[in-house]
Amino acid sequence: MLRVSVSQSSLQVDLGGLRTGDSRALDAIPNARTLIRLADAFMDREPDHLANIRDEAASVIGELGVIEAIGVAANFQRMVRIASGTGIPIDEPDPEFGTAVRAALNLNNTDWHPLSE
User: Fold this and answer.
1) Measuring CA to CA, which residue among 65, 70, 38, 71 is closest to residue 52?
2) DSSP for 93-115?
3) Cβ-Cβ contacts under 8 Å for 38 (sequence gap 6 or more)
4) Threshold 0.70, pTM exceeds
5) Hey, CA dihedral for 6, 43, 99, 24, is it positive or negative?
6) What is the mean pLDDT for each group of 10 consecutive residues in the chain (117 residues)?
């Protein structure tokens, strides 16, 4: 979905920036660093951490922005759980693309943390 959104917009986004948190690579996305921190906190499943980051994010993107960002994250979680629960197989219509994205994002590197730099 991200690939389609980026390709249909006029944004020039280096997907590697999503993995590294490199703000230079994400200049085309307003408040990218804040959104990455919010998404990471959402996935951490630590309520206190999420509350702190949510408050910080609200000061940058506003309360409506936080609601929209968390709604997008929750929707992705919902879609994955429905697909998994109903036995819908995960298609990879373009395995070469998936391999290229995983390599570009360095997803096989287990020592990496998005905001460790």
Assistant:
1) 38
2) S-HHHHHHHHHHTTTT-TT--TT
3) 53, 54, 57, 66, 69, 70, 73
4) no
5) positive
6) 60 64 69 88 89 96 95 87 79 70 71 52
